[in-house]
Amino acid sequence: RTTTTPAPHTRFPESFLWGSATAAYQIEGAVREDGRTPSIWDTFSHTPGKVLGGDTGDVAVDHYHRWRDDVRLMADLGLTAYRFSVAWPRVQPTGRGPAVQRGLDFYRALVDELLAHGITPMATLYHWDLPQELENAGGWPERDTAYRFAEYAGLVGEALGDRVERWVTLNEPWCSAFLGYGSGVHAPGRTDPAAALRAAHHLNLGHGLATSALRSVLPARAGIGISLNPSVVRSLTDSPADLDARRRIDALANRVFTGPLLEGAYPQDLITDTARVTDWSFVQDADLASIHHPLDFIGINYYTPAVVSGPRGDQDGDNARLDGHGASDHSPWPGSDDVVFHRAPGELTAMNWSVDPTGLTDLLLEYTAQAPGVPLYVTENGAAYEDTVDADGHVHDPDRIRYLHAHLSAVHEAVRRGADVRGYFLWSLLDNFEWAYGYSKRFGAVYVDYATQDRIPKSSAGWYSRVARAGVLPALDD
Ligand code: PNW
Questions:
Q1: Which biological process terms from the Gene Ontology are attached to this UniProt entry (predicted)?
Q2: Is 174 assigned a ligand-binding role in the annotation?
């Protein structure tokens, strides 16, 4: 092959972390072991009609028993970091009171095993598994849940703070608030727009209070951040109506979190847009000061952009399919449920999410500008495809390799243009319980045969492994 243009220089910084990510409810199983009690996802997945195929996390990929093998798998792949989440109902089964030692022991052993293999742990404290008892007491729309979360964060921080240096308070609070309490496609499945906004505020407050609780127990070298799933919102046209739709969705998807986190205030336009839903009287005077801490890093989870327009009667009803948030008669956009979502350009993954890596570059540069000096991690990025095992026992997933290559190039491009990105966590290490889609969507770099729990690294795992070991992104056809 003759080529005149040399491959672009795609070396990543020396200390760049090459990781993968998972979440407790999606992989652990063992839902009744060692004192664990139900979380809202146990209740939800056991409610008929909520999860595709009636799937539950009861067994998942049995990581609670196979964690040693799973760590070895990461080590064999040459990965240098792992983002996992701690199951609140294992540590504090009722959401209150002292920690259950056996719950903490599991994570301590996991972390020790990671460290023994030279893998840097990143612990997420909340990846959606609220103890059911706290939901019974009102859940995230109730202020007390924020206090309970801070207390739990302190317990985990005390137990693991000597060995975990990177802490994520919340994973994707947007999903917890607006899919959990607005559209109801996630646990606990409530469909109350005012409750969704209250939940968003109490998640913000929980993050702030948990940050203080962690600071008081963690060594000074520890870093505390949050993983957001910012929407890259694009307007269908430059018409005033479409630009206004863009502004509204940007407020409800992004600025409802970055306002208080980075600027210490809720955006005025958000308060105005949602005035018919709530008067925001649940925000108390001191709350914004509690939320507005300096962040040691920001975690960015990115999959696909959104394209929106103002209301256009003829296309109403497509939203459930096109906004990628699952089918529901209820909108996850309080006060802006008339905004129309359109199919974004690009190929589709098995989630029907369009592939557009430029969104990731845009986001990383946008956060670099919005939060100058705050390091960034891509704490999730990846894609579901319809993977199958060949007759020879291999799983060939060239689409996923292309997706990862394009998105890692997008990260590199952001770094080249000044973004301080410290690492990349592929979602996900293993195929797992994909929330409302159950086991029907496979995001893993490693295939799981659910009948046997056999792990089969896909060709993308081998590809990612080579990238991680070299610290350089090869040309795609190498
Ligand atoms: C994220 N949406 O979930 C989560 O952090 C992961 O646990 C999950 O497996 C992964 O992305 C893939 O879906 C999302 O509807 C779920 O906008 C739904 C949405 C976004 C993120």
A1: cellulose catabolic process
A2: no
Q: What is the pLDDT averaged over residues 251-276? A: 98
- Active-site residue, 380 included: yes
In order of 173, 294, 322, 363, the CA distances from 369 in angstroms are 22, 15, 30, 10
Measured in whole angstroms, the distance separating CA 255 from the mean position of its chain's CA atoms is 17
Residue 306: beta bridge partners? 233
Residue 212 CA to residue 132 CA, distance in Å, equals 25
* Alpha-carbon span 328 to 165, nearest angstrom: 39
Instruction: Name the 3-class secondary structure at 358.
Output: helix
Residue 245, amino acid: A
Region of 302 (left: φ > 0; alpha: ψ -120 to 50; beta: rest) is beta
Per-residue pLDDT band at 328 (split at 50, 70, 90)? confident
Which amino acid belongs to residue 144?
D
Rounded Cα distance, 23 and 427, in Å: 10
Provide φ and ψ at 233, rounded to 5°: -100, 125
User: What is the structure's pLDDT at 85?
Assistant: 99
Say how many Å lie between the first and final Cα of the chain, rounded.
11
Q: 204 among the known binding-site residues?
A: no
> Which protein residue's CA is at the shortest distance from atom 19 of ligand 1?
325
Omega within 30 of 0 (cis) for the link into 239: no
| Alpha-carbon distances of 228 from 67, 125, 151, 234, 300, rounded to whole Å | 26, 14, 22, 18, 5
Among 238-242, 255-259, 314-318, 471-475, whose mean pLDDT is lowest? 314-318
Q: Widest CA span of the chain, in angstroms?
A: 67
CB count within 10 Å of CB 112 equals: 13
Cβ < 6 Å from ligand 1: which residues? 23, 26, 171-172, 175, 229, 301, 324-325, 380, 427, 434-435, 443
Tens-digit pLDDT profile for residues 232-242: 999 999 999 99
pLDDT digits (tens, 9 = 90+) for 192-224: 999 999 999 999 999 999 999 999 999 999 999
pTM: 0.96
Q: Do 172 and 229 form a contact (C-beta atoms < 8 A)?
A: yes
Q: For residue 360, report the distance from its CA to the centre of ligand 1, in Å.
A: 16
Q: Which of the 8 DSSP states describes residue 252?
A: I
Are 111 and 121 within 8 A, CB to CB? yes
Q: What is the pLDDT at residue 322?
A: 46
Contacts of 242-246 with C-beta under 8 Å, sequence gap 24+, read: 242/308, 242/309, 242/310, 244/310, 245/308, 245/309, 245/310, 245/336, 245/339, 245/340, 246/308
Decide if 28 is catalytic.
Answer: no
